[in-house]
Amino acid sequence: MKIVIAGAGEVGSHLAKMLSGEANEITVIDERQERLDALSTTCDAITVEGNPSAIKVLHDAGVENADLFIAVNPSESQDVNIVSAMLAKKMGSKKATARINNEEYLSYENKYMFTEMGIDLMFYPEKIAANEIVDLLKRTAATDSMDFARGKLQVAVFKLEDESSLIGMNMAEFSAVAAEEGHNFRVVAIARGNETIIPKFDTKFKYHDLVFIVSKREGMPLLMKYIGKRDIEVKNVMILGGSPIGEMVARQMSKQLDNIKIIEMNKAKCVELSAKLPDNVTVVNGDGRNSDMLIEESIKEFDAFVAVTNSSETNILACVAAKRLGVARTIAEVENLEYIRLAESMGVDAVINKKLITAGRIYKFTLSNKVRFIKYMSGTNAEVLEYIVAPDSAITKCQLKDMKFPQNAIIGGLIRGNDSMIAVGNTQIEAYDRVAVFALPEAVKAVDKFFK
Predict the structure, then answer these.
(1) Out of 3.50.50.100, 3.90.1150.10, 3.40.50.720, 3.40.50.1820, which CATH number does the structure's domain 2-123 have?
(2) What is the rounded radius of gyration, in angstroms, for the C-alpha atoms of the chain?
(3) Residues 293/265, Cβ–Cβ less than 8 Å
C-alpha cells in the first residue's frame, strides 16, 4: 500500500515505523525538518517538508495515488488534520483519517457530516485512552481486556503472581483441569520478558508471566480462581494530572462514584477543572510526585490511583509510590514504549499508551474489509483482531486442526448468532461467524488472507 502520514510527532513516527515494516510505501509530511531527519534514522520513509494543508505539499507527497492518508499532527493541530484529510480525499486518496481533540465531532450526526466530506475515520486518542482506563477500573483483576459481542466472549490479560495455581503447570494440564469443571479457556499468548510466546501443549506457565486468555463471560469467575486474582470494588479514585485524559476519566467515573480527587500542579488548570467538573470531583493544587503530599490527601483511603501527567516517568513512579502506600489498583499512562515493560515489572497494575491505541484503529485500514476491530494488548507486540468471515473464504474450508494457519497466530474463539464458542481443534468456522484472532505482527498479513 502507498500510505501518506501528515505529522512526524510521536504518533506519526510510531505509525511510520510500524507500517513501513509491512512492505508498505510510506511518505511522511511535516513542517519541521528536524522531526523528519530524526524519523529517517529509524524508518524507511520518503519525507516531505511543508504544511500538510497546502495543496502543493500534498501533491509533492503523492496523495492522489495514496491508498491511505493519515493526519496525525499533535492534538492542537486539529484543524490542520481535518483540512488536510479532506483535501487528500478530494485529490484522490482512497481513504483518509484524521486525529481530533473535540468530543463534539464524534457524535453520530457530526461523524456522518465528516464522512460526507470525505473523512473515513476520526480518532481522539485521549478519549479512547480515557475509555480504556474506565474499563480497567471496572475489571480490576486484569491488566488489560477486550470484549466481543458485548462481553459474550472476552480476552483478558493476567499477571501470574505467587498465589496463582497455574505456575508450574503446562498448557495440557491447565486444559484438563478446566475441562473437569466444565469450562473451556483458550490461552492465546504468554508475554515473558521481551518475548511473546504462542503457546503449545507443553508450554509451562512461569512466575510473572503475562497470560492472554479467551473465555466466555460465565467462565471468568472460575478462571480468576486459577489465576489467583479477584476483582476489587472501586469506590473512590485519585487521579494524578488534570490532562484531557484525567478530566474525561473523572467525568465518566463521577456518574458511578461518590469520591474522585484530581491532583494537578498548575493552579490555573485547577481553577478551570473545578468549574467544569461535577461537585463530587475534588481538584487539589499540588505536586503528586511528593509522597508526603499524597499521604496528606489521604491516598490510603482510595481504592484506585490513575497517573496521567505528560511525563511517563512521573506516572510510573507515582503509581509505584501509591502501591507502596496501600492502593489496590494503579494505572499509568506510559507514552515511552520502552518503559511499558519496566512499569509492569515495577508493580504498576495496568498501562495505557496512546500510540498503541491509535495504531490499532488505523492499522485496520491496511487490512481487508472483513476486519471489524483491532487492538494492541499491553505487555506484548501482538494484536487481537476481530473478523467477520466471508462466504467461501479459506478459513471455512476445514476444521482448525487441519488448517495450515500461520504459526505465529492463533484463533481464540468465535461468535455465531447468539452463541459464543472457545476455538478448539475440531472447530469448523462458518460464513458470517465473528472470529477473535491473536497474531504477532509478522503473521497478520498471512492471517488476513484466510478471511478474504
Answers:
(1) 3.40.50.720
(2) 23
(3) no
Phi and psi, residue 351, nearest 5°: -125, 140
Please name the amino acid found at residue 23. A
- pTM value surpassing 0.85: no
Each residue of 164-222: pLDDT tens digit? Answer: 888 888 988 888 877 776 667 888 888 887 788 888 888 999 988 888 888 887 777 77
More confident residue, 443 or 21: 443
70-104 CB burial, b ≥16 within 10 A, e <16: bbbbebebbebbbbbbbbbbebebebbbbbbbeee
Q: State the Cα–Cα distance between residues 427 and 410, nearest whole angstrom.
A: 13
* Pairing relationship of beta strands 95-99 and 68-71 according to DSSP bridges: parallel
The domains of the chain are located at 2-123, 136-227, 244-327, 363-450
Confidence of residue 425 (pLDDT cuts 50, 70, 90): confident
> Considering only CA atoms, which of 151, 164, 143, 181 is closest in space to residue 225?
164
